[in-house]
Amino acid sequence: DVKVTQSSRYLVKRTGEKVFLECVQDMDHENMFWYRQDPGLGLRLIYFSYDVKMKEKGDIPEGYSVSREKKERFSLILESASTNQTSMYLCASSFGGAGGEQFFGPGTRLTVL
Amino acid sequence: QKEVEQNSGPLSVPEGAIASLNCTYSDRGSQSFFWYRQYSGKSPELIMSIYSNGDKEDGRFTAQLNKASQYVSLLIRDSQPSDSATYLCAVNRAAGNKLTFGGGTRVLVKP
What is the pLDDT at residue B95? Predict the structure, then answer.
């Protein structure tokens, strides 16, 4: 079974803090994704990576950056957290190639005070 | 027009009945279609994938795809209270690896 893990289930941070969200997958997937999910707005893609050190902006990259130094690990960074970044953050991974099935981690509920 | 559209529901069905969920998409180049189930407070779980026109059955679930009409549907037979969840339709973007998700349909199965 594909396993995608995320470093924290719940996180509370203060405005202006630098926040790191970590995601690890154990299926040797080429692609990894970061989404946020908000009521009424659905799942929105922040960034994705199709290979080590490769990244591509998603639909809402502003205020975020990412890092992928190893194939199994994909990090989302909030350089200076703001209250409007309070959300559920979901990591997913898939095999390379177009249109593959994505498998999600358990999610991190981030609250920025 | 949203790229992937679903009725938000709630879709209320009695236990044992068939739940029918619909999804329409706008990108004619899309080739891969997925249904995810998401329980409240949990992450989406993949339940069905479909790539060619017609029906695909997996247990109590049947996915139906009609590319000419640009819709994909999910049938849940013999609905159980444990099927109460939000169901997300996802469609690949023709240009590559990314998926576009619909807003989800909330299903309530009443005993």
Answer: 62
